[in-house]
Every structure is written in structure tokens, then in C-alpha cells.
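Re: the request from the purification team.
They wanted to know what the chain is likely to look like in 3D before they choose a buffer screen. I agreed to run a prediction and write the result into the notebook, where they can find it.
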Amino acid sequence: MPFRLLKLAITGAENEPRFFDTREDLKPSYDVVIIGGGGHGLACAYYLTRDHGVTNVAVLEQGYIGGGNTGRNTTIVRSNYLTPEGVKFYDESVKLFKDLSSELDLNIFYSTRGHFTLAHTEAALRTSRWRAEVNKHYGIESEVWDRDQIAREVPELDLDCGGNTPVLGALYHAPGAVARHDAIAWGYGRGANNRGVEIHQKTRVMGLRINGGQIIGVETDRGFVATEKVISMVAGSTPRITKMAGFETPIEIHPLQACVSEPVKPFLDTIIVSSGLHIYVSQSSRGELVMGASVDPSTLHSTRSTFDFVEGLADKLLDLFPFVAGLKVTRQWAGMADMTPDFAPLMGLTPVRGFYLDAGWGTWGFKATPVSGKTMAHTAVHDRPHDLIEPFRMTRFTDYQLVGEKGAASVGF
């Protein structure tokens, strides 16, 4: 029996401390203000306190903790990206994830499953080999598997896909994992709160005050707070915040939908992604199939979900697992994917001094939660980009030094 459960049985749940302190008022000023109380924002607050001793920090969240994209994803963690920049960045995140339950004293349900990216064409198979070689060069466990190897590992999978788009092979990434998304947000939030960070929910940013190209404060619906360092970590709301700062980015917002089935007995202990069918699926610890597809084609600032999505996803899922035809979909949702032209994040310094940006996460923001928080905390404290995120700087779009990560975003478009 876990010690924490035994403790609850003896002392009672009513004696458990709250995760967060209730903050009635904003202070007049802070050393750092973080806009966005999702996983990235709370992780950044945590590492500001742990690694740099900066405790006079406010996290401003317009809704509730983890209510944005952090709570609207499918919880996959991996580092089998295409570019050296992406591989090194996400591998650091995987390393941080592995120790996070101990670090935060909270079970994040981290479960290593193995990650298959199915290839249905010779072109997709070539890209799989390319990714495998890049991964192995940086010590990442990835290799191309043939049909026989896939069949032995995932016998439930119909490799012929109903005769429509048969699987030719797959990129197998053994460290691929899943984790509990709300546990990540609440764990980082509690850790930051315990170190003195103020977390203000239901606090909407209405404007940024800038003087001579330097950020000097944030206007909220609860009043003005002075600060010389602001970090925006708001994913799909990024264009609204950057407009307040007086500059634009090449980010476009596309809804990204997902759904879960009713729970069934475990049969799928790996993560399956199809680059040709644009679908991914895993099975949760509760037995639900957690499923997603590509982003919606139209730009739209919305988290609405549609029947068209479920209909299309079900059709593709049955090509892979025809025996799940009778399962019911119990709920569906959508997040707002902030997409960049090169499918890589946009992080670091901006044209406004003291204003830092963490955005452009598209379909891969959850898996970057720990490393984004850690590197953005370093960037804000030192006023220069951390080495891992320097390639993701905003000026790469004017310098024509794009990262080119589209080949590793199998369900991006």
C-alpha cells in the first residue's frame, strides 16, 4: 500500500493541506509575471524558484489551472523528432519526465509504452529511416521495424488496414510514454506555490504596459501590476497577447480535437501513430482508448468539437483495429494548436525587452512541459536564450534558418 494512501486512512482527507494558497489580491509589483497557468507556465514558475531563487513571481490564469491545452491533449511523451535541434530539446524533456513523480512528490502516472509511427508508403518509410538515424546519432532509442516485428509486438493491429493503405513498416521509439496531464499541472503548481509563487486564477490580462521598448507592467481585470519581466505561455491565445505587445508572429491557430472511448479490458500497451491515416491511439490506465487526429484545416480560435471529426477518426481507427467497431465514444474535446510554418516552437526573446515568448507548440506542447519551463526560466533570469532553445528564436523566420520539424509531426496536417 502506498505510504500516502496509508496516511490518508489514518489521518483523514480533511487534514490534507490544499494544493494552492488562496490569494485575495495582487501585489503592486513582481520580479516576474507569467501569463498562463497551464503546464508550461507552472513549470516555469517552479524552476524559477528551484533553480534561480526567484520567488516574487505571479502566475496569471484567465480560467483555471490546467484548463487550456494542458487539459486538452492526449498525454504522449516522446523524443523521436527529425531535426537535431528537436531531438536534443525533447530528449531533455523525457529525462525530466522520468524523475518528475519523485521531484514533485506526486504520482504523475508516467508509463513507458513504446511508440510506433506507422509508415504506409515508401516515402514515409524513408522518412522513418531518416528519423531513426538522427535519433541514434544523439543516443535516442529509435529503429525501423518491419511488418513481422510489428505483428509480434501489436498482434491486434490489422497491418493490411482493410486492404486500403497497408503498413509497410514503422519507426519504433521504445522510450515513448504517457503521463497524467492534470497531475503535471497540479504538481508543478503545488511545488511553485510551496516556494512562494502566487497563482492567480480567474485573472485575465487586458494589456501590457511598455515604455521605451521595455515592459514595465501588466494590466489585468483585477488591476495593474508592475514588473520588468513577463513570460507569455498561453499557447492558442498567443496572438492576443503578442498584439498587446505590439508585434506579430507567423503563428496560426487550428483546433485540434481528441476523444476517448468507453473503458474496455487492456489490449493495447503501446502508442500507435499513423502518419498516413493521420490518427494516433493509446489505451489509458482506466481502459479507455485515447484517440486524436490531425488539426482542423481552417484557422479558428475555438475549442468546439464536431461530429465530422469523430466520424472521420472512427473510419480510420477501424482500418487499424476493426474489432473495436462496437465501442462507444464517451466524450470529445478540442484544444487550440498554435502552429508555426516550420512545425517547431517559438521561444525566447522578443522585440520588447523583458517580454519573453513560449509558443508555437502545435500538437506537441504537452511533451515539452518540463524542458520548456526549465529553459524559459533560465532565459528570463539571464535575459538570453538557453542553448537548447536558441534555434527556436523568433528571428529565424527573417534569417531563413528554419528548423523544419514537419516530418516528425505525423498528425500535424
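For the purification team: The first helix runs from residue 3 to 11.
Please add any questions underneath this entry.
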